């Protein structure tokens, strides 16, 4: 279980990082921003509060992945810091799993801070308001939000590990990560719209299959949308929620394992 | 440690060509050669960081590397890094090692990003000594060190070697190699072209070796 020691060191290393400390501070200050923005509205203050926290959760996750994870892994591989870690008995597998686990732990910590601070903010700010103003807020929405965000970005994290395992530099890793994030945000709604029965009836069959395949091949970053939909009164089946989480876990796992297989064979 | 007929090329460029090398436990060997002779690639292959295209390399578990530059996670301190390495190797030598490499005590708990190159090199040396490895591979171990530091490290490596550890040192400083090593291998064009036994560890031997190296370098250049 050598990887647990590296996971611990990774968490500690990220904790020492100024960018991570800044992200933690932003997570702590998020309720102030949410309170400030939601107080601009007359009604549905609770909904606006959830919306702001949802946006900040996405922003924190993206900054964490691009500026911390990609930088850390690129430095390890391309600046050869990995040589320090890959001294026997630490194997490449231990290194890969250890780094992943440490990063996941740091990400969980970041989201946990966001959850606690925004829940405290909601408790202090929304609890005193009447039901009409609170509308759209329930105590469990913020928990759901963090939960969905965690799993959806685990899939992107798995993808980053996959890219790092074969890419030849920091810029390449950054490019593919950004491309994946953009695809995952922009394409699913567009593809879903293209697959509507009205559009599909005049579309050649192979194009339908191609669109379906692309739709299935990229993870859909809709975790915040789900929570916001719930907050805005849309009922979402629990089965769909489980499938959504499972999709991201499986996606992340497949890319993580593919990356591990390549990393074990690459020259460093 | 046996290396048999090892070949490695990067795209079309042949870096190691049917290289053979053997060294026994407790010996100190040196690797000498012009830039691009294949020394660093050989070291990476020994550490399992690079895979050979062909040939056999003995898989050794009790081995440590001092890389050519101090590659370190700069947000951590030397103490934290050593503590981690000791945990992995299951030993508790943090302070002894930091004292052995003469890293000033007031810098132990400062982040590595604030270190000079020499201090980073000392940390790197301490890291390579964690767990008293049986085989120690040193790639340019004196880079960034001052004259006092060089003399001290040579003495330290010599003591470690006398205690039974095998050392493979790669350096451009011929005098350092002659002082420490029992045998020096000259590499050119990805092969060991000459192996020289060092008997006296003297300046005279170092000068003779410089001449041999210049000869092989010029042969290489002519080709």
Helix content of chain B: 25-40%
Mean pLDDT of chain B, to the nearest integer, reads 88
* Separation, N- and C-terminal Cα atoms of chain B: 31 Å
- The best one-word shape of chain B is globular
Annotation field: number of helices of chain B: 7
Oligomer: heterodimer
Strand order in space, largest sheet of chain B = 5-6-7-3-8-9
Mean model confidence by pLDDT of chain A: 87
Main pleated-sheet profile of chain A: none
Beta strand % of chain A: under 5%
String of helices and strands of chain B = EEEHEEHHHEHEHEEH
What is the secondary structure topology, with strand pairs?
The complex is a heterodimer of chains A (268) and B (223).
Chain A: H1 2-16, H2 18-38, H3 45-78, H4 82-85, H5 92-125, H6 131-134, H7 141-166, H8 170-194, H9 197-200, H10 205-217, H11 223-231, H12 238-263
Chain B: E1 2-10, E2 13-22, E3 28-33, H1 39-47, E4 54-57, E5 63-66, H2 78-89, H3 94-100, H4 117-129, E6 135-139, H5 147-162, E7 166-170, H6 174-180, E8 183-188, E9 191-197, H7 203-222
Parallel strand pairs in B: 3-7, 3-8, 5-6, 6-7
Antiparallel strand pairs in B: 1-2, 1-4, 8-9
Helix pairs in contact in B: 2-3, 2-4, 6-7
